[in-house]
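Hey,
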Amino acid sequence: MQARPDGVISEHSKKQTIDRSQTRILAFLNIVGVGMLGRFEEQNIDDMNPEMAAYMVTRLFPDILVGIKSAHYWGPDFTQVDQAVKAGTIANVPVMVDLGEHHPPLSIEELFMKHLRPGDIWTHTYANAPKDREVPVDENGKVKPFIFEAQKRGIIFDVGHGGGAFHFAQAVPSIQQGFIADVISSDLHTGSMNGGMKDMTNLISKFMAMGLSVQDVILRSTWNPAKVIKRPELGNLSVGSVADVAVFSLQKGDFGYTDVRAKKLKGTQRLVAELTIRAGRVVWDLNGVASQNWDAKP
């Protein structure tokens, strides 16, 4: 969403997309006022207003906006990140950072230890574009020690698979060495749904193929994200919680999962989304689980 002072663009986005959705939509607000309009627009330091962004979160759309986003900045320093953190501090919400496109790449150790707060989020954790951004796994296949220190400090690592930000060359050795992203997320768009990501069930199945259990991938796709965005009423099936439920079937077989460079990893399990319930109402039913047979008597 965008941070126009008059809220016009944001209100249009809300009416066009959010209000029409059958499932819940929450959003991070871009620190750049015009939003993710284009790469050049996202470089405009004069259009980064922490006070106005915080106002949008706390006063105009508090039910929808859960954080501040910093992305696609190629300046020589952390100016955009720092402005986003200012907004996040005022609004008491987390900041998500998509750091990259800096030449030479900025230090992610400095980002984690000096600019972000505990609870802030680094997305595209397993991207492998060392010319644009520093990566967690070094050229010898070892996770850099400060990555574990940052996670202990409270920095949240988010998958953000997308169409170009997930590589097995980063993910597999990371998981093997105990560095696992806190949140599994899709970064859904046409380039990712028609590429290696496909959909959320394929993505979490991919992590199962890399050694995570069903319980662990569900945790990192539901309860962990809910805690990160400070919405503890979501992401769980406790008594009294809203009836948002996903029902899966677990298939056994010979499956293949690809990353954004079409590199394949084989797996023997796959989760398939059978049923989606939003606030107690069925909004997706793959095999008619919740339906009567056509010839059943009323």
